[in-house]
Amino acid sequence: MLQSIRDNSKGIIAKIIVGLIALTFALFGVESLIGLGSSEKPIATVNGEAVSTQELMRGVELQRRQILSQMGPDADPTMLDDNLLNRMVLESLIERSLLSQSVEKQGLFFSEEMLDQLIVNTPQFQVDGRFDRNQFELVLRSAGFTPLTYRELLRLETLIDQERAGYVLSSFMTRSEIERIVSLDQQTRDFAYVSLSLLPILNQVSVTEEEIRARYDQNAGSLQTEERVILDYVLLEKAAFVDPGQVSDSEVESLYQQALAEFRSEELRDAAHILIEVDEQTDALAALARIQEVKLKLEEGEDFATLAQIYSDDIGSASEGGALGFMSRDMLVGPFAETLFAMETVGGISEPIQTEFGYHLIKLEGVKQEEMPTRADLEMELRYEIAERDAERFYVEALERLADLSFSSADLIAPSEELGLEVITSEAISREGGTGLLGGHPRVVEVAFSQDVLRDRLNSLPIELDRERAVVLRLNQHQPSRQVTFEEAKDSIELELITEIAKEQLRAQADAWLASFKEGEIPPDMSDDYSWVEITGVNRGAQDVSSEIRNAAFAMNSEELPAFEVITLRNGNFALLRLDEVNRAEADLTEDEMAFMLSFLGSNQGQIEYEGRVEGLRQAATIERN
């Protein structure tokens, strides 16, 4: 058959096919050729313009790679939420489509020559400072792009940047606006507050069973339990395959010889030290004075170890006379290492040196060369290293076998028996998750409520919890959502009613006090248990005052002082605020500071305006998500 195709490819039929392909490319582009055999519905449309599933998949994969790259070499791909990634990328593609339509409508332009120059000057595409075609194609392949798709994406992003720059670079602020902003930022306020606690009133309020029953009847339709599932599962763990007893002596010897060949002896120095910390209680000058005092005692002949026990702030070593043991240079911070390894006399004591921790005196106790441990010393460490390396291979093989068995089996018995795994039953898990090994893993929860597991009652495919554990799920019990009974809801409804009544009473008390203070009177029921907490000279960023209280105080109208206001706190309590004074500050900026603020805040204002433009495009658009 293949030979027949080869033979026919030289004839007139082949020429016609090639001609049709060329025509398709010329008229509709490369994407049309891919789509000839597919009429797949787009994932979304933006003003009638399609966002394809292929674009979404490519975007999700690119986003996944970027996230994993940022997470480092130990990144766990199973911790990424696929649904969240899909939503994020889809919204990004919708926004890109809106902006693409916007720049096209405005007639923005970027020439082919400028595009070429941008690509050639990209450092990632260069080798030894010059553009390299192979490097260019390698980088694009790793990111999932062809030169053509990358070129079009780069053109679009550049045009979008042009529009954004038009907003950011044309926006500005005046000197008077900057002075007003700085003055407001540096403003301080004097105020006071009284806290009104909800708890005492809660303890006094009670409701009848008839009231609870009435609230239950009123809301019975919305009082539903969560849908839950109980799962059977088998757990495959890499740790189960780590068996140092199966490692041969020859493998241990080979790894030891390799370590021996790679070993480089380092000089080790045995040190002791006395540390005087620099902290909130002891500044640098005080710490230096104290360490010099200790140095004088040493010069007078007092014992280093004894002084370390008395004066050193290093809790870990002070009780041992300051002893740190033998250490290599790279185990120590810079100035400490430089001083210790520059000392020439065993028993010698350094001058005071400063590190990030404070001031030290260092005593050199001994010097030796690091020696390669014997094979006997490393025996178990080497065996475990080999066993863990082998376990990775065994685990992957078992994972593949588990996938095959789970797919072909009607239950978890066959996988558990062949692989020696226990069938475990989980706690109940809702669509919001749950507790235990499975309930806290988003991917497990997603699969547990999938059609395959929940409706069709099939085994799941293996789900990797992390790099060393995987599970296969099977439905044990489905607990559909149902209406909560009165007895189940009674306690929570009672608490809800009591809290509502208590808040109403406390709010009434707070409003009555507010009215009294506004009339210049002290409320008659304000006992000595309530007292004003006075706050003076507080700025907008103060950390020693509750942010709720501070923000409310700075939001109060200061036209007539003292001013009073009641606010509700997040914990359900109330606070009565009294604003006493607004301490205004004059903006005192140098010309350089003013120039920076004009540029920075002007650009920031432009970015806000641009974001408003994007939001306006989104609101005016016809967007359909499929």
Automatic annotation (TrEMBL):
This protein's UniProt keywords: Cell inner membrane, Cell membrane, Chaperone, Isomerase, Membrane, Rotamase, Transmembrane, Transmembrane helix
GO CC term (a single one): plasma membrane
InterPro entries from the UniProt entry: PPIase_dom_sf, PPIase_PpiC, PPIase_PpiC_CS, PpiD_chaperone, Trigger_fact/SurA_dom_sf
Domain PpiC: 266-366
MF annotations from Gene Ontology: peptidyl-prolyl cis-trans isomerase activity
Membrane topology per record: Single-pass type II membrane protein
Any Pfam family matching the protein: Rotamase
Main location, first listed in the record: membrane
Cell location: Cell inner membrane
SUPFAM superfamilies in alphabetical order: FKBP-like (SSF54534), Triger factor/SurA peptide-binding domain-like (SSF109998)
Segments crossing the lipid bilayer: 12-30
Sequence similarity: Belongs to the PpiD chaperone family.
Cited PANTHER family: PEPTIDYL-PROLYL CIS-TRANS ISOMERASE D, PERIPLASMIC CHAPERONE PPID
Protein known as: Periplasmic chaperone PpiD
